[in-house]
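Sequence only, no structure available. Ideas?
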Amino acid sequence: MKVQDMTQRYRKFKRTWGMWYAFDTVTGNSVSLKTRVKTEAVQKVNAMNEIERQPSISLGLAKVYLNATDPKLATRTWQEVMEHIVAKKEDETRRRWDTAIKDKNFDCLRELRVVETRPEHFDRALADGKVSTNVYLRRIHNHALGMEWLLKSVIPRLQWPKPVFKAKRAITAGEHAAIVARERNAERRDFYELLWHTGASQTDAANLLAEDVDWNSRTISYSRAKLKWLGGTRIKPALIRFGAEVEGILKRRPAAGPLFPYLRTVRAGDRATEFRQRCGGLGISGVSLHSYRYAWAERALKCGYPERFAQQALGHNSKAVHRAYSKQAEVLVPSLDDWEKDWQENAKRIVQPSQQFIPLHGAPMCNVAGN
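Reply:
I predicted one. C-alpha coordinates follow.
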Protein backbone atom coordinates (compact mmCIF):
# COMPACT_ATOMS: atom_id res chain seq x y z
CA MET A 1 0.00 0.00 0.00
CA LYS A 2 2.89 2.36 0.76
CA VAL A 3 4.39 1.71 -2.70
CA GLN A 4 1.10 2.66 -4.32
CA ASP A 5 0.98 5.89 -2.29
CA MET A 6 4.39 6.90 -3.61
CA THR A 7 3.03 6.91 -7.17
CA GLN A 8 0.18 9.23 -6.28
CA ARG A 9 0.60 12.95 -6.88
CA TYR A 10 -1.84 14.10 -4.18
CA ARG A 11 -1.90 13.02 -0.55
CA LYS A 12 -4.36 14.02 2.14
CA PHE A 13 -3.45 15.39 5.53
CA LYS A 14 -5.35 17.00 8.38
CA ARG A 15 -4.68 20.42 9.88
CA THR A 16 -4.78 20.95 13.63
CA TRP A 17 -8.15 22.71 13.32
CA GLY A 18 -9.73 19.63 11.74
CA MET A 19 -9.81 20.62 8.03
CA TRP A 20 -8.48 18.13 5.47
CA TYR A 21 -6.00 19.28 2.82
CA ALA A 22 -4.42 17.78 -0.29
CA PHE A 23 -0.63 18.00 -0.66
CA ASP A 24 0.79 18.19 -4.21
CA THR A 25 4.02 16.16 -4.23
CA VAL A 26 5.09 17.79 -7.51
CA THR A 27 4.69 21.48 -6.69
CA GLY A 28 4.78 21.28 -2.90
CA ASN A 29 1.57 23.27 -2.63
CA SER A 30 -1.41 22.44 -0.45
CA VAL A 31 -5.08 23.00 -1.20
CA SER A 32 -8.05 22.75 1.14
CA LEU A 33 -10.46 19.90 0.49
CA LYS A 34 -13.13 21.95 2.32
CA THR A 35 -14.26 19.11 4.51
CA ARG A 36 -13.70 17.84 8.05
CA VAL A 37 -15.00 14.35 7.21
CA LYS A 38 -12.28 11.81 6.45
CA THR A 39 -14.35 9.70 4.02
CA GLU A 40 -15.12 12.80 1.90
CA ALA A 41 -11.45 13.79 1.93
CA VAL A 42 -10.46 10.28 0.75
CA GLN A 43 -12.96 10.44 -2.14
CA LYS A 44 -11.74 13.87 -3.26
CA VAL A 45 -8.05 12.94 -3.15
CA ASN A 46 -8.72 9.69 -5.04
CA ALA A 47 -10.59 11.67 -7.70
CA MET A 48 -7.69 14.13 -8.04
CA ASN A 49 -5.21 11.27 -8.46
CA GLU A 50 -7.48 9.49 -10.94
CA ILE A 51 -7.66 12.61 -13.09
CA GLU A 52 -3.88 12.87 -12.96
CA ARG A 53 -3.40 9.26 -14.12
CA GLN A 54 -6.13 9.09 -16.78
CA PRO A 55 -7.19 12.62 -17.83
CA SER A 56 -9.03 11.54 -20.99
CA ILE A 57 -11.15 8.94 -19.18
CA SER A 58 -11.84 11.40 -16.36
CA LEU A 59 -13.07 14.01 -18.85
CA GLY A 60 -15.43 11.47 -20.36
CA LEU A 61 -16.81 10.55 -16.95
CA ALA A 62 -17.20 14.22 -16.08
CA LYS A 63 -19.26 14.78 -19.22
CA VAL A 64 -21.56 11.89 -18.28
CA TYR A 65 -22.21 13.41 -14.85
CA LEU A 66 -22.60 16.92 -16.26
CA ASN A 67 -25.14 15.85 -18.87
CA ALA A 68 -27.37 14.62 -16.09
CA THR A 69 -27.57 18.11 -14.58
CA ASP A 70 -27.40 20.27 -17.72
CA PRO A 71 -27.85 18.55 -21.11
CA LYS A 72 -26.22 21.48 -22.93
CA LEU A 73 -23.22 21.78 -20.64
CA ALA A 74 -21.07 19.44 -22.71
CA THR A 75 -21.97 21.04 -26.06
CA ARG A 76 -22.38 24.77 -25.26
CA THR A 77 -20.06 26.99 -27.32
CA TRP A 78 -18.61 30.41 -26.59
CA GLN A 79 -20.79 31.91 -29.33
CA GLU A 80 -23.85 30.80 -27.34
CA VAL A 81 -22.39 32.38 -24.20
CA MET A 82 -21.89 35.68 -26.04
CA GLU A 83 -25.41 35.62 -27.45
CA HIS A 84 -26.80 34.91 -23.99
CA ILE A 85 -25.04 38.03 -22.65
CA VAL A 86 -26.31 40.25 -25.46
CA ALA A 87 -29.89 39.05 -24.97
CA LYS A 88 -29.83 40.40 -21.39
CA LYS A 89 -28.59 43.88 -22.33
CA GLU A 90 -30.61 46.93 -23.36
CA ASP A 91 -30.23 50.17 -25.29
CA GLU A 92 -26.68 51.51 -25.69
CA THR A 93 -25.14 48.68 -23.64
CA ARG A 94 -26.66 46.13 -26.00
CA ARG A 95 -25.31 48.01 -29.03
CA ARG A 96 -21.83 48.02 -27.51
CA TRP A 97 -22.00 44.27 -26.85
CA ASP A 98 -23.32 43.61 -30.36
CA THR A 99 -20.22 45.32 -31.71
CA ALA A 100 -17.85 43.72 -29.19
CA ILE A 101 -18.75 40.09 -29.94
CA LYS A 102 -18.05 40.64 -33.63
CA ASP A 103 -14.36 41.05 -32.79
CA LYS A 104 -12.32 38.90 -35.19
CA ASN A 105 -10.13 37.77 -32.30
CA PHE A 106 -13.12 35.77 -31.01
CA ASP A 107 -13.36 33.75 -34.23
CA CYS A 108 -11.04 31.09 -32.81
CA LEU A 109 -13.41 30.62 -29.86
CA ARG A 110 -16.89 30.83 -31.36
CA GLU A 111 -17.39 27.14 -32.11
CA LEU A 112 -15.18 25.92 -29.25
CA ARG A 113 -17.03 24.05 -26.53
CA VAL A 114 -16.91 25.89 -23.22
CA VAL A 115 -16.08 22.85 -21.05
CA GLU A 116 -13.18 21.88 -23.34
CA THR A 117 -11.52 25.30 -23.27
CA ARG A 118 -7.87 25.45 -22.21
CA PRO A 119 -5.69 28.48 -21.42
CA GLU A 120 -3.92 28.28 -24.79
CA HIS A 121 -7.26 28.89 -26.54
CA PHE A 122 -7.66 32.20 -24.71
CA ASP A 123 -3.99 33.03 -25.27
CA ARG A 124 -4.60 32.79 -29.01
CA ALA A 125 -7.49 35.25 -28.83
CA LEU A 126 -5.46 37.66 -26.68
CA ALA A 127 -2.26 37.37 -28.71
CA ASP A 128 -2.38 40.84 -30.33
CA GLY A 129 -2.83 42.65 -27.00
CA LYS A 130 -6.02 44.42 -28.08
CA VAL A 131 -7.56 46.10 -25.04
CA SER A 132 -11.22 45.61 -26.00
CA THR A 133 -10.63 41.89 -26.62
CA ASN A 134 -9.04 41.53 -23.19
CA VAL A 135 -11.82 43.43 -21.41
CA TYR A 136 -14.75 41.71 -23.11
CA LEU A 137 -13.25 38.20 -23.07
CA ARG A 138 -12.77 38.53 -19.33
CA ARG A 139 -16.44 39.54 -18.97
CA ILE A 140 -17.56 36.65 -21.18
CA HIS A 141 -15.42 34.24 -19.17
CA ASN A 142 -16.82 35.55 -15.86
CA HIS A 143 -20.37 35.27 -17.20
CA ALA A 144 -19.80 31.60 -18.04
CA LEU A 145 -18.36 31.03 -14.56
CA GLY A 146 -21.29 32.80 -12.93
CA MET A 147 -23.78 30.69 -14.88
CA GLU A 148 -21.81 27.56 -13.81
CA TRP A 149 -21.14 26.62 -17.42
CA LEU A 150 -17.42 26.35 -16.60
CA LEU A 151 -16.08 23.89 -14.05
CA LYS A 152 -13.23 26.26 -13.14
CA SER A 153 -11.52 29.39 -14.45
CA VAL A 154 -9.79 28.96 -17.80
CA ILE A 155 -7.20 31.54 -16.75
CA PRO A 156 -6.85 32.31 -13.01
CA ARG A 157 -7.81 35.87 -12.11
CA LEU A 158 -4.26 36.96 -11.25
CA GLN A 159 -2.84 35.41 -14.43
CA TRP A 160 -4.92 37.43 -16.89
CA PRO A 161 -2.71 39.67 -19.03
CA LYS A 162 -3.10 43.29 -17.96
CA PRO A 163 -4.63 45.49 -20.67
CA VAL A 164 -2.44 48.42 -21.70
CA PHE A 165 -4.68 51.42 -22.26
CA LYS A 166 -3.77 54.35 -24.46
CA ALA A 167 -2.79 57.53 -22.66
CA LYS A 168 -5.74 59.82 -22.00
CA ARG A 169 -5.62 63.52 -21.35
CA ALA A 170 -7.89 66.47 -20.73
CA ILE A 171 -8.78 68.93 -23.45
CA THR A 172 -7.17 72.31 -22.79
CA ALA A 173 -8.97 75.64 -22.60
CA GLY A 174 -7.20 76.77 -25.76
CA GLU A 175 -8.21 73.65 -27.70
CA HIS A 176 -11.81 73.97 -26.54
CA ALA A 177 -11.90 77.66 -27.52
CA ALA A 178 -10.53 76.83 -30.99
CA ILE A 179 -13.13 74.09 -31.54
CA VAL A 180 -16.01 76.30 -30.44
CA ALA A 181 -14.80 79.25 -32.52
CA ARG A 182 -14.68 77.13 -35.67
CA GLU A 183 -17.97 75.27 -35.11
CA ARG A 184 -20.74 76.69 -37.31
CA ASN A 185 -23.54 74.43 -36.10
CA ALA A 186 -25.22 76.18 -33.14
CA GLU A 187 -26.51 73.00 -31.51
CA ARG A 188 -23.15 71.26 -31.64
CA ARG A 189 -21.35 74.40 -30.43
CA ASP A 190 -23.64 74.71 -27.41
CA PHE A 191 -23.17 70.99 -26.77
CA TYR A 192 -19.38 71.36 -26.55
CA GLU A 193 -19.78 74.41 -24.35
CA LEU A 194 -22.05 72.54 -21.95
CA LEU A 195 -19.59 69.65 -21.73
CA TRP A 196 -16.83 72.11 -20.80
CA HIS A 197 -18.83 73.79 -18.04
CA THR A 198 -20.51 70.70 -16.52
CA GLY A 199 -18.17 67.76 -17.16
CA ALA A 200 -21.17 65.63 -18.14
CA SER A 201 -20.64 62.56 -20.29
CA GLN A 202 -21.59 63.02 -23.93
CA THR A 203 -24.58 60.66 -23.65
CA ASP A 204 -25.97 62.30 -20.52
CA ALA A 205 -25.55 65.80 -21.99
CA ALA A 206 -27.12 64.87 -25.33
CA ASN A 207 -30.17 63.42 -23.54
CA LEU A 208 -30.81 66.43 -21.30
CA LEU A 209 -34.32 67.86 -21.32
CA ALA A 210 -35.47 71.40 -20.64
CA GLU A 211 -37.42 69.86 -17.76
CA ASP A 212 -34.13 68.82 -16.13
CA VAL A 213 -33.37 72.50 -15.53
CA ASP A 214 -34.76 74.14 -12.39
CA TRP A 215 -34.55 77.89 -12.98
CA ASN A 216 -35.67 78.75 -9.45
CA SER A 217 -32.77 76.95 -7.79
CA ARG A 218 -30.56 77.33 -10.91
CA THR A 219 -29.75 73.64 -11.01
CA ILE A 220 -29.49 70.86 -13.58
CA SER A 221 -30.44 67.39 -12.36
CA TYR A 222 -30.13 64.12 -14.27
CA SER A 223 -29.52 60.44 -13.65
CA ARG A 224 -26.53 58.91 -15.36
CA ALA A 225 -27.44 56.58 -18.23
CA LYS A 226 -24.40 54.49 -17.34
CA LEU A 227 -25.93 53.65 -13.94
CA LYS A 228 -29.43 52.94 -15.22
CA TRP A 229 -29.01 49.21 -14.60
CA LEU A 230 -28.87 49.80 -10.83
CA GLY A 231 -32.49 50.94 -10.82
CA GLY A 232 -34.62 52.22 -7.98
CA THR A 233 -33.28 54.45 -5.23
CA ARG A 234 -29.68 53.29 -5.61
CA ILE A 235 -29.09 55.89 -8.32
CA LYS A 236 -28.30 59.33 -6.98
CA PRO A 237 -28.80 61.94 -9.68
CA ALA A 238 -26.10 64.42 -10.57
CA LEU A 239 -27.24 67.77 -9.20
CA ILE A 240 -25.32 70.82 -10.41
CA ARG A 241 -25.86 74.51 -9.74
CA PHE A 242 -25.09 76.49 -12.89
CA GLY A 243 -23.56 79.93 -13.31
CA ALA A 244 -23.92 82.72 -15.85
CA GLU A 245 -22.06 80.89 -18.64
CA VAL A 246 -24.32 77.84 -18.51
CA GLU A 247 -27.36 80.07 -18.15
CA GLY A 248 -26.51 81.66 -21.47
CA ILE A 249 -26.20 78.25 -23.12
CA LEU A 250 -29.51 77.02 -21.69
CA LYS A 251 -31.37 80.12 -22.83
CA ARG A 252 -30.23 79.43 -26.40
CA ARG A 253 -31.66 75.92 -26.29
CA PRO A 254 -35.36 74.87 -26.60
CA ALA A 255 -37.58 75.86 -23.67
CA ALA A 256 -39.31 72.46 -23.67
CA GLY A 257 -38.30 68.92 -24.58
CA PRO A 258 -34.76 67.86 -25.57
CA LEU A 259 -32.09 70.54 -25.30
CA PHE A 260 -30.23 68.94 -28.22
CA PRO A 261 -32.92 67.44 -30.50
CA TYR A 262 -30.55 66.28 -33.25
CA LEU A 263 -27.60 65.11 -31.14
CA ARG A 264 -30.00 63.12 -28.97
CA THR A 265 -30.81 60.90 -31.98
CA VAL A 266 -27.17 60.34 -32.98
CA ARG A 267 -25.24 57.28 -31.84
CA ALA A 268 -22.49 57.96 -29.30
CA GLY A 269 -19.93 56.64 -31.77
CA ASP A 270 -21.12 59.05 -34.46
CA ARG A 271 -20.97 62.02 -32.07
CA ALA A 272 -17.42 60.98 -31.22
CA THR A 273 -16.52 60.73 -34.92
CA GLU A 274 -17.88 64.21 -35.64
CA PHE A 275 -15.83 65.63 -32.77
CA ARG A 276 -12.70 63.82 -33.92
CA GLN A 277 -13.12 65.26 -37.42
CA ARG A 278 -13.28 68.77 -36.00
CA CYS A 279 -10.17 68.14 -33.92
CA GLY A 280 -8.38 66.78 -36.97
CA GLY A 281 -9.17 69.92 -38.95
CA LEU A 282 -7.53 72.00 -36.22
CA GLY A 283 -4.53 69.73 -35.79
CA ILE A 284 -5.65 68.66 -32.31
CA SER A 285 -4.82 65.07 -31.36
CA GLY A 286 -5.11 62.84 -28.31
CA VAL A 287 -8.53 64.05 -27.16
CA SER A 288 -12.11 62.80 -27.36
CA LEU A 289 -15.45 63.93 -26.01
CA HIS A 290 -14.58 62.10 -22.80
CA SER A 291 -11.63 64.48 -22.43
CA TYR A 292 -14.11 67.14 -21.33
CA ARG A 293 -14.69 65.14 -18.15
CA TYR A 294 -10.95 65.00 -17.50
CA ALA A 295 -10.74 68.74 -18.11
CA TRP A 296 -13.57 69.48 -15.68
CA ALA A 297 -11.96 67.31 -12.99
CA GLU A 298 -8.56 68.96 -13.47
CA ARG A 299 -10.07 72.43 -13.23
CA ALA A 300 -11.91 71.40 -10.07
CA LEU A 301 -8.72 70.05 -8.50
CA LYS A 302 -6.67 73.10 -9.43
CA CYS A 303 -9.02 75.59 -7.79
CA GLY A 304 -9.60 73.53 -4.63
CA TYR A 305 -13.14 72.40 -5.43
CA PRO A 306 -14.15 69.92 -2.67
CA GLU A 307 -13.85 66.30 -3.74
CA ARG A 308 -17.34 65.38 -2.61
CA PHE A 309 -18.85 68.06 -4.88
CA ALA A 310 -16.72 66.96 -7.82
CA GLN A 311 -17.70 63.32 -7.37
CA GLN A 312 -21.41 64.07 -7.27
CA ALA A 313 -21.19 66.48 -10.18
CA LEU A 314 -19.47 63.81 -12.29
CA GLY A 315 -22.06 61.25 -11.21
CA HIS A 316 -19.71 58.88 -9.42
CA ASN A 317 -20.68 56.88 -6.35
CA SER A 318 -17.96 55.77 -3.95
CA LYS A 319 -17.30 54.96 -0.29
CA ALA A 320 -15.39 58.23 0.03
CA VAL A 321 -18.53 60.18 -0.90
CA HIS A 322 -20.64 58.26 1.63
CA ARG A 323 -18.12 58.94 4.39
CA ALA A 324 -18.15 62.66 3.54
CA TYR A 325 -21.93 62.99 3.76
CA SER A 326 -23.76 63.23 7.05
CA LYS A 327 -26.11 60.24 7.00
CA GLN A 328 -25.65 60.06 3.20
CA ALA A 329 -27.46 63.39 2.78
CA GLU A 330 -27.58 64.68 -0.77
CA VAL A 331 -25.48 67.80 -1.35
CA LEU A 332 -26.42 70.57 -3.75
CA VAL A 333 -23.35 71.00 -5.94
CA PRO A 334 -22.27 74.63 -6.49
CA SER A 335 -21.38 75.96 -9.92
CA LEU A 336 -17.75 75.23 -10.84
CA ASP A 337 -17.67 78.46 -12.87
CA ASP A 338 -18.56 80.58 -9.82
CA TRP A 339 -16.19 78.60 -7.61
CA GLU A 340 -13.35 79.00 -10.12
CA LYS A 341 -13.91 82.77 -10.44
CA ASP A 342 -13.89 83.14 -6.66
CA TRP A 343 -10.67 81.14 -6.48
CA GLN A 344 -9.00 83.30 -9.13
CA GLU A 345 -10.03 86.50 -7.36
CA ASN A 346 -9.01 85.26 -3.90
CA ALA A 347 -6.16 82.88 -4.61
CA LYS A 348 -4.31 83.72 -1.36
CA ARG A 349 -7.08 82.82 1.02
CA ILE A 350 -9.10 79.72 1.73
CA VAL A 351 -11.71 79.43 -1.00
CA GLN A 352 -15.26 80.01 0.16
CA PRO A 353 -18.36 79.60 -2.03
CA SER A 354 -19.75 82.74 -3.60
CA GLN A 355 -23.12 81.95 -2.08
CA GLN A 356 -24.60 79.54 0.43
CA PHE A 357 -25.38 76.04 -0.77
CA ILE A 358 -28.19 74.29 1.02
CA PRO A 359 -28.29 70.46 1.19
CA LEU A 360 -31.50 68.73 0.17
CA HIS A 361 -34.06 66.95 2.36
CA GLY A 362 -33.40 69.06 5.43
CA ALA A 363 -29.80 67.87 5.94
CA PRO A 364 -27.48 70.07 8.00
CA MET A 365 -25.64 72.94 6.31
CA CYS A 366 -22.47 71.72 4.65
CA ASN A 367 -19.10 73.29 5.50
CA VAL A 368 -17.75 73.88 2.00
CA ALA A 369 -14.31 75.00 3.11
CA GLY A 370 -13.37 71.60 4.53
CA ASN A 371 -14.50 67.98 4.68
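The chain has three domains: 2-53, 78-159, 173-345.
Hope that gets you unstuck.
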